[in-house]
Please model this.
Amino acid sequence: WQPAVVRIGSRPIMRVTFEGVRGKDYQGDIAIDDISFETCQVQALCKPDQFACESAQCIDSSKQCDFVSDCVDGSDEKNCAECDFDAGQCGWTNVKTDDYDWDRVQGPAGS
Model:
């Protein structure tokens, strides 16, 4: 046996064909066994400034985690509220041109 793993990526429509040519003697037999397709969800081919929804829809990246479901499956709002700001700003930015500014600091809370 000669095992093989072939990574074929994913496309919205795909056909997989196995083709072989059998030899003339007993050493020319062919066997295909244990075929599996893993993580076969359709992935959108989005532009760099777009978010790829799980439904293969592309939306503008600025619409991800904006508290509005722009993907038909709502995947643009998944994992957005799980941030505790311990490791960063969670994608939020401070607009310095308004009247309200904030800083991320570590230490005891002021009283």
